[in-house]
Amino acid sequence: MTFDISLQQILLRIVAFLVISAVHGFALVGLLTAFGDRGPRFDGRLSLSPLAHLDPIGAITAICTLGGWIRPLQLDPAELRQGRVSLALSVVGGLLAVVVVGLILLQLRSLAVAVLPPSASNLINAWLILLAQMSLVFAIMNLIPLPPFAGGYLLQAAAPRLFALVQPRTTIIAVVLMVLALIDRGALVRQLLGPMINAIGA
User: Fold this and answer.
1) Does the pLDDT of residue 169 top 90, yes or no?
2) What are the two backbone dihedrals, phi and then psi, of residue 99, each rounded to the nearest 5 degrees?
3) pLDDT tens readout for residues 38-64
């Protein structure tokens, strides 16, 4: 794969990130709701609409690096059965859902080749590979225990006081990450995860 960002790549990444945002947001909020915190559901976040979860800064970062994040949730670990354990399980489960859906959709490549004309099937094939790659990078990046990543909730589960200090600075952290992504344009992701990403769709 190439990390040069052409206009076509930008458009493909935008569409892929919309799918990832919808899957991640829906799965994460669904798990939180099942564990007892209905706050995000009442906020309208139990939705498969990507617009319910999209974070513009996270989306720009995703276009540059294949990673990114969704809009932060307002949640209360005290509402969860098993408390912070349920929070950690929800985070991991939501990220696993993203990877699984990406890999399942990747299996549609052969169907696209069989049904669509070559020009369309090549584009769909490239997008399905990109979606699976972005799903993997998104999941790995969101294990980072720092907001605005979903891993920030892992920090909230493991060290609530530290999270309380960091959380008010989420927007500043997000902007810094976006600027670094615009400068780096995926070079760090390529260095750290390149072989794993390239194996998808090979």
Assistant:
1) yes
2) -65, -45
3) 999 999 999 999 999 999 999 999 999
Q: What is the pLDDT of residues 79-111, one digit of tens each?
A: 999 889 999 999 999 999 999 999 999 999 888
- How far is the C-alpha of 47 from the C-alpha of 60, rounded, in Å? 22
CA dist., res. 111 & res. 82, Å (int): 43
The b/e string for 132-171 (b: 16+ C-beta within 10 A; e otherwise) is bbbbbbbbbbbebbebbbbbbbbbbbeeeeebeebbeebe
The alpha carbon torsion through 78, 80, 82, 86 (nearest 10 deg) reads -120
Sign, CA torsion 143/146/148/150: positive
* Angstrom distance (rounded) from CA 61 to CA 112: 29
| pLDDT of amino acid 1 | 39
Report d(CA 170, CA 174) in Å as an integer. Answer: 6
Three-state secondary structure call for residue 144: coil
Retrieve residue 124's tokens.
């769909």
